[in-house]
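Practice problem: predict the structure.
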Amino acid sequence: MVEVKAKHTLHSGIFHPVLRQWQSPNVEITVNNLMYPIFVLDEQNAKEAIASMPGVYRYGINELRKTLLPLVSKGLQSILLFGVSKHLKKDHIGSNADSLQNPIIQAVPLIRHWFPNLLIACDVCLCPYTIHGHCGILNEDGSINNKASIARISEIALAYAKAGAQIVAPSDMMDGRIGAIKNKLAAAGLINKVAVLSYSVKFASGFYGPFRDASQSAPKFGDRKCYQLPPGSNGLAARAAARDVSEGADMLMVKPGLAYLDIVRHTKDAHPEYPMFVYQVSGEYAMLYHGAQNGAINLENVLNEVLLSMRRAGADCIITYFTPLILDMLQPKKYGIIVTWAYR
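Answer:
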């Protein structure tokens, strides 16, 4: 076991140009402030519409290049990949989360080859690959076995790193998983080549409903309130971020976004030296989309306002399903650069 003084490991946060830009936050929305989440399905030629998220799809590996090509040409800098298991067998430990048949394991080397400058983050969790749909390994009584869970999560993170992921992003919310991942990366000689984006402050939220449809990862019993944070928990949010900083996270995240901008501001103020990510989650996407479709709002105007609120609260990077639209909004020949502002 290689013990790492992870808080003082800096190279994992600056080895890629986009990572360096996140470490040097600016005051305007650019392509560097966006990360595009993509669902990768274990059916190579598929392109499946997600009913609860109109305009968002699950993509088979053979659909990824033509999907990403126009976005990269418009300046897309980074993506966050989620594996979706439609055919792979599920079990109690998520064996196929890091098997050779896993769609993320297969997709990452191809994307690295097609788009060498695109920064690839991979979500690390068990829920899409377990028969119970929970984010960790369970004890016989249905409670979380934290020790076994972080051992498994760190194995999956290492597999994604070896496949070519430049960022691993554990979303499971198990205690100690950042340190476990950092030690695995160090033992494999990857500590300075792979960054860890921690879902540090992830709340148990009703805004996740469409995502669980998209990723087919809803729990089969119970809920995730024993390991995701209660919505009113300012103190736990601060402790969670501090815990992950102490274990060596390179970047921090608050999820969801719009309902938790006070937490974004508090977290950024407490840890100003860390890039701050905000996840504009599936329910936020659906809410804005359907509001616009029903004529209640102008989508581009309101989206611009929401992005402004997130940046103003301290977000350095916004993970959003609206990334293709925002890239179009940022094209000067078509729209003019309309999303520009300074902190007040």
